Amino acid sequence: MCCPRGYNLGHSNLGTPDRPGRGAVCSSWLEGGAVFDVTTLGSDLKATVNLATAGPDGTTVLASTDYYDIIFH
Fold this sequence. Notes:
mainly beta, 0% helix, three-stranded antiparallel sheet, two-stranded antiparallel ribbon
């Protein structure tokens, strides 16, 4: 699995040789007040995008794979 530029990779299944990246998560840090979009994929496979604002102390942003190992960020 590859993470977008500026994200760090966190592995969860390194002990599974046939799917070592399954369930991995990419994370990044945003400064307080930063505006970003949150993309979700519904069970109908339609994407929804919503704007969000980081709290005053900043926030950690996570991007993970869905069932089919497609990453959205």
